[in-house]
Write a structure and sequence with these properties.
The chain is α/β, with parallel strands linked by helices. It has a single domain (about 1-325), classed as 3-Layer(bba) Sandwich (FAD/NAD(P)-binding domain), CATH 3.50.50. Helices cover about 30% and strands about 30% of the residues. The chain has helices at about 10-20, 40, 55-80, 100-110, 130-145, 250-265, 310-325, and strands at about 1-5, 25-30, 90-95, 115, 120-125, 150, 155-160, 165-170, 175-180, 200-210, 220, 225-230, 235, 270-285, 290-295, 300-305. The mean pLDDT is about 95. The chain binds flavin-adenine dinucleotide (FAD). Flavin-adenine dinucleotide binds next to α1, α2, β10, β14 and α7. Flavin-adenine dinucleotide binds near residues 7, 9, 38, 42 and 306.
Length: about 325
């Protein structure tokens, strides 16, 4: 029997399992597929909210706390696993919204400055990671640290008695533990009884192949973005589709993402589209992230609802939930 079962092996579940293990817990992590293959894999890897003033204080606080540790964390994971998460502080060039009253108030409050740029405002502190590599590195690291990972095992329901959970019923039998931490991303609603509904917000993205150093910064305009990777790949994202768990990708979206790219960087007009995919962001109706103890079961904890910011908030979110689990 473990001290804590973690449900879900995305960035949130794996990062939480890592922190719990570092704090001394024996952790079993269950995933219905393979770890790191859902939203956390599909995302762009920008280590900042896109327009931070659109988000609540907790999202901003967890983002800043994570930004402060991300580079060192990626170095640690690289050393431990041999896989480089490719943390790059390339800066983010924001072409719209940076001069609204809301944005100015936010910048004053958090004492954030940008550099003037011919095309907008350059936020030079913003970094990106290559999230599929980050997830590979994280998985290898937590296995090394002693986390027991059980994949292809769907948690069907909680085993509960009065105000406590005893473990979980799964497609491969029952798992018992002292505490349960739910990090099931967009699927959280199927397991938990939450006041704030969690639902999937689908996003489609494409990746182009372009010459290295074509684009020096992440570019953000009208909610869409262009993210340069170190090897010349360029990610373009993303749509916001409230259509349930439908993974389909479509040609008009692919064309519109490509058009967005070459309208901002004409050299990308003839770039080859290497891949087109979708993922399910865990969105909450309130727009708020949930990092909390459950209101019914005293030993059930929840870390979900990270919406567009789970990669960015993961380290601090894992830290916060570990403190709650160990209180
Ligand atoms: C197109 C797109 C672009 C994005 N860009 C960014 C970005 O640039 N920066 C950023 O910070 N964020 C970004 N995001 C958001 C970010 O990816 C998510 O917030 C984050 O991945 C959520 O992590 P998670 O671990 O909660 O969810 P997931 O990664 O979806 O993990 C949930 C896991 O739980 C498992 N699971 C679910 N139900 C069960 C069950 N019943 N039993 C067992 N296992 C279960 C699933 O198999 C899955 O592995 C983007 C998302 C998308 C889709």
């Amino acid at each position: 029997m473990s001290d804590c079962i973690v449900i879900g092996g995305g960035i949130i579940g794996m990062m939480s399992a890592r922190m719990l293990t570092i704090a001394g817990a024996r952790v079993t992590l269950l995933d219905q597929r393979e770890c790191g293959k859902e939203s956390s894999w599909a995302g762009g890897g920008i280590i900042s909210p896109l327009y931070p003033w659109h988000y609540d204080d907790l999202t901003n606080d967890l983002s800043f706390e994570s930004q402060a540790v991300y580079e060192a964390l990626c170095d640690d994971l690289h050393r431990s696993s041999g896989v480089d998460p490719e943390y790059q502080k390339s800066g983010l060039l924001m072409m719209d919204e940076f001069d609204t009253a809301e944005a100015k108030t936010w910048m004053e409050r958090y004492q954030i400055n940008y550099q003037n740029h011919t095309d907008g405002a350059l936020f030079s502190y913003v970094a990106s990671v290559r999230n599929p590599r980050l997830l590979q590195a994280l998985k290898a690291d937590i296995i090394k640290k002693g986390v027991k990972i059980v994949e292809h095992t769907q948690v069907e329901s909680l085993i509960a008695k009065e105000d406590k959970v005893l473990g979980v019923h799964t497609s491969k039998g029952d798992f018992l533990s002292d505490k349960v931490l739910a990090c099931a991303g967009a699927w959280s609603e199927q397991l938990l009884n939450l006041k704030d509904e969690i639902f999937p917000m689908k996003g489609q993205m494409i990746v182009l192949k372009a010459p290295v150093d074509e684009i020096p910064h992440i570019i953000l305009d009208q909610g869409r973005y262009i993210i340069p990777r170190a090897d010349g790949k360029i990610l373009i994202g993303s749509t916001m589709e409230d259509v349930g768990f439908n993974r389909d990708v479509d040609l008009p979206t692919q064309q519109s993402l490509h058009e967005f790219a070459w309208q901002h960087v004409p050299a990308l007009k003839n770039a080859e589209i290497e891949h087109h995919w979708s993922g399910f962001r865990p969105a909450s109706r309130s727009g708020k992230v949930i990092v909390a103890k459950d209101e019914i079961y005293q030993n059930l904890f929840i870390n979900t609802g990270h919406f567009r910011n789970g990669l960015n908030m993961a380290p601090a979110s894992a830290n916060k939930i570990t403190q709650l689990v160990n209180e």
